[in-house]
């Protein structure tokens, strides 16, 4: 259930989903940069981070 919430957050606000998964690390800042450069790359990166961390 927590993963579903993170994925929904990643679709709405990608950096928030990454923050809840990895905290304030490099992946979080990379996601902010990707979201600024284009919303879709931020979403893809956020979902990838969430899926990779929850195996």
How does this model look, in words?
This protein starts with a helix and ends with a helix. Helix 1 (2-12) runs antiparallel to helix 2 (14-22), helix 1 (2-12) runs antiparallel to helix 4 (39-53) and helix 3 packs antiparallel against helix 4 (39-53). The longest helix has 15 residues, at 39-53. It is built from 4 helices and no strands. The mean pLDDT is 91. It has one domain. The chain is mostly helical and 55 residues long. It is found in: Membrane. This is YqaE/Pmp3 family membrane protein. The chain crosses the membrane at residues 7-26, 32-51. Keywords: Membrane, Transmembrane, Transmembrane helix. It holds the Pfam family Pmp3.
The 3D shape can be described as globular
Average pLDDT taken over every residue: 91
Order of helices and strands: HHHH
- Rg on CA atoms, Å: 10 Å
Query: Cα distance, first to last residue?
Result: 14 Å
Overall SS class: mainly alpha
Question: Count of DSSP E strands?
Answer: 0
For the largest beta-sheet, the strand count, sense and barrel status come to: none
Measured as a percent range, the helix fraction is over 70%
Task: Estimate nothing, just give the exact number of structural domains.
Answer: 1
Q: Report strand %.
A: under 5%
Uncertain spans, ≥5 residues at pLDDT below 50? none
Helical stretch tally: 4
């Amino acid at each position: 259930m927590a993963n579903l919430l993170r994925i929904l957050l990643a679709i709405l606000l990608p950096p928030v989903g990454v923050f809840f998964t990895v905290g304030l690390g490099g992946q979080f800042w990379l996601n902010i940069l990707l979201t600024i450069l284009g919303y879709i790359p931020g979403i893809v990166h956020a979902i990838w981070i969430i899926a990779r961390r929850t195996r």
